[in-house]
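Hi L.,

You mentioned the student needs an example of a multi-chain input paired with its predicted structure. This one should do, with 349 residues in total across all chains.
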Amino acid sequence: MHELSIAESLIGILTEEARNHKIERINKVKLQVGELAAVVPESLTFCFELVSRDTIAEGAVLEIETIDVVARCDNCDQSFKVLDQMFLCPVCGGPVLELISGRELSVSSIEGETGEDNGSD
Amino acid sequence: MARINVPVVRNILQANERLAAENRRRFDEAGIYVLNLMSSPGAGKTSLLEKTIEALSGRVGIAVIEGDLQSSYDAERIQSKGVQAVQINTDGGCHLDGNMIQIALGSLDLSQVDLLIIENVGNLVCPAEFNLGEHDKIMILSVAEGDDKPLKYPLMFQLCSVLLVNKIDLLPYTDCDMGKIRERARQLNGNQKIFEISCRTGEGFAPWLSWVESKVGEHRKTRMGSKQ
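Structure written out for the whole complex:
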């Protein structure tokens, strides 16, 4: 499954962000995954565990937030939540092509530990 | 040790998006129209290519990139029609990505090409998430797969500007309802063009071919325009 490629890309991003922020160990990663994204969260978590071994993110928890599919009708200037995969405007019934959300596949935050002791914790 | 929480908003697939954008720039500079052809295994991708190449040869310069887990069987089928074809073997990978296309482009002479068709790995799920730099994503659904497929693979149907319903010569032997396919596809993507075809008998090919030719024409114009 393509979740493996996605997990590998994620490790690349985490490694880069850790270097930029002098993070030595990553504990938690928050992701946003749209409901329309062709990604199975369990499969992504499984692949992440595999590919994070011996990396800075080994043992980190993946917290996946699912994002609703929201679309907008141009004619009616209305945004609405897409239910049962009906990409039709509930007001005029016309086809809706503009997606406001639902295809996210992104990192939203990284929690970790830096080597410096700033005394705050 | 100090704890740190860093807000980062980064698309996980941004590396692929960057490569896809580079591919797209290259296609646009050359005035080449590019299709990313997807379907489940056995729906008729390579047969569609063969028929399309036969019909358009002489009028349109065509090249093909073939994606498969293993073997060069499909590329050989296409080459026997007299067009350039390069095979990508993903060695188990379920989709093509922007990087694979960039590498494959190195083995193609694009100077006489108007239309590049990328035949993705047979799969209705994974290829949808990976842009390759194409102008349009198109898909084939064969009637033998059933009319419930739009419900089960919504992203694929949502993204594809064209749906080719293939093997319509088999319709009398299946329980597939063309009306349901059309209705379910419209719910997902009201702008999708639907062509009902049979690669075996050639039925329904004329409207599909004229759609492709008009798209190729539009992109050729941009090339001519940029040369002036």
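You could point out the following to them. Strands of chain A lie at 23-34, 61-67, 70-73, 78-81, 98-101, 105-114. Chain A touches chain B through 43 residues (CB under 8 Å).

Best wishes,
N.
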